[in-house]
Amino acid sequence: MRSLSLFFFLFLALLLPAQRDTLTITTFNCEFLNERKVHIKYDLETPGSEWKNEDFRRQRFIEASAVVADFLSTFDSDVLILTEVGNRTEVELLQQQLKDRGQNYPFWKVCESKDRGTGQHVAILSRWKIKDAVLSIPGREFYIAEEDDPAEEIKDTGLSKAMRVVITRNNREFIIYGAHLISERLGPEDDYKRLAQASILRRHMLKDLQDGKFVIVAGDFNDHRGQPPLRRLRGLDDIFEDFIQTGYTRYFDKDKYDTRWTYEYMGERQQIDHILISLSLKEACLRGGIRAETRAPSPSTRLIDNRKVRVSDHRALTVSLILR
Fold it and tell me: How does residue 145 score in pLDDT terms, banded at 50, 70 and 90?
């Protein structure tokens, strides 16, 4: 009788589908969601005199943060990697606003930003426990500002807005890098500088990649698929490819191929916000278990007390991983 019960239990176990882990990640550029520069979300490059009042500016920031929280609460992601956010106190407000909207991220970290010009940070919010965090990525890299001028002095750069966390679930560890690489404000010089920043990030990830760990790198890289910084991060000009580009059409629904862009500038649409996953993590996913989508805030602006506040000039990118 006992052996019959054991046989029946094993038979049921074979019939029941195995429990799967699903990790869903969203990266979103919140566009100047920091109190010091929040007037830009109100389409004000040069703010009026009322913005010098600390209470006035604080209230506008609370309103803008609520608008971003409204959008992010429409996702059901396990991890949010956010760029262009403020310091720890300012991110804590957003985290509480998300909680008020039914999306609780009890584990969260904010990078140690060295960006004195904008005051922007990178933040990672997680529903899964954060086991470890490195709040700044060390290292310097040389670059030449003008490659067609051999007499040009060689410069060097660091990573001003980047971080690493380790999250855990069901005895699995996931190493997540969040980064915001420099934009193209200065043209070619920033292109070389951005590539140098990608090199620093790549070096920091190599040990984990070589050890076969599950690694994710995400954020606003200010360059699109196939450009040198993305190739550098993925290892395409290294020894071998380590990272999968989830922005490829194969990971999107067929009717959404033309929605893969995350930013539009002068009529040109590009995907400059990325989620890259290590080959080891891809191999841990079910066949067809990687799905991606982008989503735009709708509406893109909200009217608050006759003031238009913009959610963001970026679209969010989400990737879902169904693990074996």
Answer: confident
Q: Cα–Cα distance between 262 and 29 in angstroms, integer?
A: 9
Cα–Cα distance measured from residue 241 to residue 233, given in angstroms and rounded to the nearest whole number = 9
| Mean pLDDT of the 125-154 span | 88
Residue 243 lies in a domain: yes
Please spell the DSSP secondary structure of 97-160, one letter per residue: HHHHTT----EEEE-----TTT--EEEEEESSEEEEEE-S----EEEES-TT-TTSPEEEE--S
* Residue 3 maps to a domain: no
**Residue 5 falls within a domain, yes or no?**
no
> Can you spell out the DSSP letters for 11-46?
HHHHHSPPP-EEEEEEEEEEEEESGGGGGGGGT-SS
Best CA proximity match to 283, nearest among 225, 218, 220, 209:
209
Q: What is the mean pLDDT of the chain?
A: 92
Confidence at residue 186, expressed as pLDDT on a 0 to 100 scale: 65
Structure confidence at residue 14 as a pLDDT band (50, 70, 90): very low
Based on the structure, what is the number of domains in the chain?
Answer: 1
- pLDDT, one tens digit per residue, over 231-264 is 999 999 887 789 999 999 999 999 998 999 999 9
| pLDDT over 80 at 198, yes or no | yes
pLDDT for 240: 75
Domain residues for the domain of 60 are 19-323
Cβ contacts of 53 within 8 Å, gap of 6 or more = none
Does residue 12 fall inside a structural domain? no
CATH number for the domain that contains residue 101: 3.60.10.10
Q: Which helix (H) or strand (E) holds 274?
A: strand 273-278
Residue 168 is given by DSSP the state E
Element (H, E) at 316: strand 316-323
